[in-house]
Design brief:
about 160 residues, eight-stranded antiparallel sheet, globular, 5 helices, 8 strands
């Protein structure tokens, strides 16, 4: 349910596990993430198929304890902080704002997206906030504005 899902952090974890560990990337894996988060937090809201918003520390625990991945929770200065990590082989989960499947600088809701690269003009994401999110490109300015609204929080991830 694209209008109501809160599985963005969980989906980023599934995508990263698929990339680093070669595991399946599908909706049943997202359900498994929610079950894990319910057991980890005791929050029954994760039993909803649309999930529940995850905090950076919960995503970090999920990545580490369920998928064997290492991450850091960082606050950046410029979007280049994220891009340097992505270029070094560490995709980054970035905290942004989203509305109607598009990153926004004002309004919207908290959202996690996965930054996978830069083409010289656009920040390339695998964005679980839209059905057309695979290799979704955002101008550097638009991404930066949304990321700034998300307090410039990001999480580089590696094996």
């Amino acid at each position: 349910d694209w209008a109501n899902t809160k599985n963005c952090g969980q989906t980023c974890a599934v995508m990263l596990s698929g990339y680093f560990n070669g595991t399946a990337v599908n909706s049943s894996q997202i359900t498994a993430e929610n079950t894990w988060l319910y057991n980890y937090t005791g929050n029954s809201a994760y039993n909803n198929a649309n999930g529940y918003y995850t905090y950076a520390s919960q995503i970090q625990a999920l990545l580490s304890q369920k998928h064997g991945l290492t991450s850091s929770i960082l606050t950046g200065t410029t979007v280049d902080d994220i891009l340097i990590q992505a270029y070094s082989g560490k995709p980054c989960i970035a905290h942004v704002r989203i509305s109607g499947g598009v990153l926004v600088s004002t309004g919207g809701v908290d959202h996690w997206t996965l930054v996978v690269g830069y083409d010289g003009y656009n920040v390339i994401t695998n964005d679980p906030g839209t059905s057309s999110g695979f290799n979704k490109a955002y101008s550097k300015a638009a991404f930066t504005a949304s990321w700034t609204a998300g307090n410039k929080l990001y999480m580089p991830v590696n094996k």
